[in-house]
Amino acid sequence: MDAALANSAFVVGGWPDETGASPLFGVWKTTPARPAVAFALDSKQEPATGPRWEAKLPAGLAADEALRGAGQAVHEAYLALPEAARRLDAYATSRRAGVSFAATAAEEAELDRYLRALRQDAVAFGLGDRLDAVWDEVIGPFRAAFDEALQQTGNLAWVETEQAGTRLGQTVVSWTGDVRTAWRAGLDRTEADLHRRHLDLALDARQTLLRAIALAVQGAAVVAAAVTPGGALLVLPAVWRFVTRISGIIRNAG
Q: CA torsion sign, 95 to 101 to 105 to 109?
C-alpha cells in the first residue's frame, strides 16, 4: 500500500498548511485555496467553495491499493482519538492535584513546556501583554490554523478524482448533506466506483477532523482549568497540536 500511495497524489486545497513537510493523515498534501471553479466537468455553473479534496490515482489495481491505504490511515487516526482524550485527562488530573508531571512521551513534554511558558508569561507580564517568544512563534500559527480548520469543515466539500490523467468525477457535498456529482461521459463501473470510494474517504477524513476539533475544544477547557489562568482559548492551539500528533492526523511535524 505504501508504494501505491507513493505513486498517487492526494491533495486537499484550502486547508490550513500547518503541517509543513507532514501531510494530513500522512496522506494529503495541504495547499492554499484555489480560486472558485465552476461545478461540473465541462460547464459553467455555480462555483464550489470550501476544501477541495483531489486524488490523482495510478492505473490498474494500484488505484484500489492507494484508496485502501489512505482509508486505513484515516481509520487509525479516528480510533486513536480516545487515546488522545485519555492522555489529556491524565495530564490535567496530575496537574490539578499539584503533582509534578513527569512527561513520559514527547507529546506530553511539549504540551507541558508550552503551558508552563504561558503561565510564566501571564504572571510576569499580565494577560494583556505579549507572551513568551517561544509561544508566539510556535503556538501562534497553530491558533490561526485551528481557526481556519474550524471554518473549512463547515463549508462545502469539493471532491475530484483522476486516474492515469483522466478525470473521472467531481462531487460537491454541502454541510447539510446535499450531493451533486458530474461524471465523465462513458465512465465504466470500475471507474465510477473509484470516485465514489474517494468521496467516502474525503468525507471520513472531514468527519475525523471534526471529531478532533471537538476533542481539542473539550480538552482545552479541562487543561486550562488545571494549569493556567489564561482560559481555554489560550491553551487551545497547544491542545490541538497535542491531539493531532497523538492521533496521527499530523505526523512527525516539527
A: positive
